[in-house]
Amino acid sequence: MLIQATTLKRGITMTLKAKLKIIFTTFFSISVLVAACSTALLMSSTAQAKNHDDYRENQLMLLALKSSQVSITQILEKFKADYPSIVTEIELDDEDHILVYEVKGINLEDGVKYKVQYALHNGEEIDNYSKSLSFLGFNKLDDHDVEALETIQDQGLSALDVIAKTTLSEGAYIESIELENKRGLTFYEIKILGPMGWTKQLMDAKSGDVIPSLRR
To answer: What is the full DSSP assignment across 106-124?
Structure first.
């Protein structure tokens, strides 16, 4: 009789322990699930807020481009006239809350690099900078830069040619053009801003062939 009572007591104790373990495991699982859901909601809210901010900035930039008195072509023509060089990059940027086109160019013969900023709304030059590309008789440019520049010199496409060959949808504008050389290929990366957001294209610097890229 005593043995039966002891066995019953152990059975009850084990049952309580098992129940407590189940309760604890369930509570822990629920806590983890709630935390995961909270994190997911927070990330979703953050992503939505970022998307909203990006969309707002895109629309403001499009409005500024539409209202500008000058085109990207006119900006480049002005740069080429004042700073004879191969244009390696032109990019729309925010400088002290003013939208500017920043143009970079390299004159291989003189060994000079230029960087000039033009106000987007009227094309006025607001800043310029130049520096020598040689140091103690050595060229600061790496092999990829030299190959890209030599490709353009050897009847390759200029940045102005790229603009002429780029097809834009209605309401879209070129935001930046950058000369690149990777894996033995010289090409331009073109960033386009339109009502639906950003897109990128790659254009062969020799043939002008275009490779569409993913929407950003």
So the answer is: EETTTTEEEEEEEETTT--
